[in-house]
From TrEMBL:
Classification via SUPFAM superfamilies: MFS general substrate transporter
Spans through the membrane: 35-52, 72-91, 96-117, 123-146, 167-187, 199-219, 256-277, 283-309, 321-342, 354-379, 386-404, 410-435
Pfam family, one: UNC-93
Membrane topology: Multi-pass membrane protein
Cellular component, GO annotation: membrane
Gene3D superfamilies hit by this protein: MFS general substrate transporter like domains (1.20.1250.20)
Protein name as catalogued: Major facilitator superfamily (MFS) profile domain-containing protein
Alphabetized UniProt keyword annotations: Membrane, Transmembrane, Transmembrane helix
GO term, biological process aspect, one: potassium ion homeostasis
């Protein structure tokens, strides 16, 4: 018993930078090192893209070009997720990440000359490439976690939690960094600083994109998961049911059907922040200039919650508790906005949207981390298709909010979001109960 305990303690003490292996270039990099590189690449790419997305309805107002472009983008994303898994398998996850980044660069380039002939094609292409990029991201990170857990005899759920916590923590910080870049370059001018400042901003963003693409190219290839061929498995790798030899796809898998409401809610709550919260809660109190500050607070809260949630994740049981905590926080905000909130003057009134943004950001960071880890745990045998299907649910829900929000009231959107949250949490808790009883995941 003492020897076994010593072995377990020694395995648990293995740092996340262990298990270095040679890359095609001859350098040695750990599996966790690839996750660091992946996170840094997304940091540069989305520090440029997210503020560009936030500015569409403000800068490209003629004929609602910006809003229409965003609707086309998410509709394209939803459609192309149907083929994303097959394309990612063909390109490999690293190839999909590199190709995916090109769409974001083209979209920012189109903003230097925003017309219907530049923005619409760029939006359609970005919808296609972003579906590849996000499926590639989930596949790549899961493969790295599997390899790291296998080689160091660590629990797969714990490694997935830590890797996803780091990635989504870095990703959430792009809201802070990107908005600060916009603020510095554009200033507080109501017209956005004029054409010269706009062009300067998008040029800076293109520079960030180039750095992101270079970092993507430096990633190691992960076409096959390391450790599978030698008969070894990481701790905690056991799924309900084992469909590796069957014709069951994630679309027909009961686990995905029960997880789908939570995936859809994730897309709804994201779009609520972008399309409704900033317009109907922040702007009436803080004005347009306060949107950047509120989103920066939202992003900062997401960074902290992603890192903490990732560290606390060890498997399905811990994910259930963490997701439930995030759901309670967002439910509290929804009910307060629905029944108690009204714009107020003074310091308290100005602080209210910031507090709401911070609490909402905590819940968003939790969902970011946990959903990616859950898909990696439950669908490792068909991870490309599972991540593609997950992004399809999210994108479809996001597109629905963008198209419906102009004609909906704040109260109506809050009520719909609260109802979606109840359904999502109920389905997820049922999924956790079924898996727990079947002993499909070991803790």
């Amino acid at each position: 018993m003492g020897s076994r305990r010593d072995d377990e303690e020694q395995a648990a003490a293995v740092p996340l930078l262990a298990a270095a292996y040679p890359t095609p270039s001859g350098l040695r990099r750990s599996h966790a090192g690839d996750v660091h590189l992946l996170s840094a690449a997304f940091l540069f790419v989305f520090s440029a893209y997210l503020p560009t997305q936030n500015l569409q309805s403000t800068l490209n107002t003629e004929g609602n070009l910006g809003a229409v472009s965003m609707g086309i983008l998410y509709a394209s994303f939803t459609v192309f997720t149907a083929t994303a898994a097959a394309v990612v398998r063909w390109l490999g996850s690293r190839g999909a990440l590199v190709v995916g980044t090109s769409g974001y660069a083209l979209f920012i380039l189109a903003n230097l000359l925003p017309t219907w002939y530049t923005m619409v094609p760029a939006s359609v292409y970005l919808g296609f490439t972003s579906s590849l990029m996000w499926v590639g991201q989930g596949t790549y990170l899961t493969s790295a976690a599997f390899s790291h857990a296998t080689e160091n005899k660590l629990h797969l759920g714990q490694v997935l939690g830590r890797f996803n916590g780091e990635f989504w923590g870095m990703f959430a910080s792009t809201q802070v960094i990107g908005n600060l870049i916009s603020l510095v370059v554009l200033g507080n001018d109501k017209d956005g600083g004029g054409a010269n400042k706009k062009n300067l901003l998008f040029t800076v963003f293109l520079g960030c994109m180039v750095i992101g693409i270079v970092l993507m190219c430096l990633l190691s290839r992960r076409d096959k998961i390391r450790g599978e061929s030698d008969g070894h498995e990481p701790q905690g790798r056991s799924f309900l049911p084992d469909t590796s030899g069957s014709a069951v796809t994630p679309l027909a898998d009961p686990r995905m059907l029960l997880l789908a409401p939570l995936l859809a809610y994730y897309g709804l709550q994201k779009a609520f922040v972008w399309a409704v919260f900033t317009k109907s809660v922040v702007t009436p109190v803080l004005g347009v200039a306060g949107v950047g500050g509120a989103m920066a607070v939202y992003g900062a809260a997401g960074v902290v919650s992603s890192l903490v949630a990732g560290r606390l994740t060890s498997g399905l049981r811990s994910s259930t508790f963490i997701v439930s905590t995030g759901a309670v926080l967002q439910a509290g905000v929804l009910l307060w906005l629905l029944f108690l909130y009204s714009p107020m003057d003074g310091l308290l009134g100005s602080a209210a949207p910031l507090v709401v943004g911070a609490v909402w950001g905590v819940g968003d960071g939790i969902l970011n981390t946990q959903l990616s880890a859950l898909i990696g745990l439950l669908f490792e045998n068909d991870k490309e298709a599972a991540f593609a299907l997950g992004k399809m649910w999210q994108a479809a829900a996001t597109a629905a909010v963008f198209f419906l929000s102009p004609g909906a009231t704040l109260q109506g959107m809050l009520a719909a979001l609260a109802a979606a949250l109840v359904v999502a949490v109920a389905a997820f808790l049922f999924l956790s109960l079924v898996i727990e009883r079947s002993h499909a995941l070991k803790f």
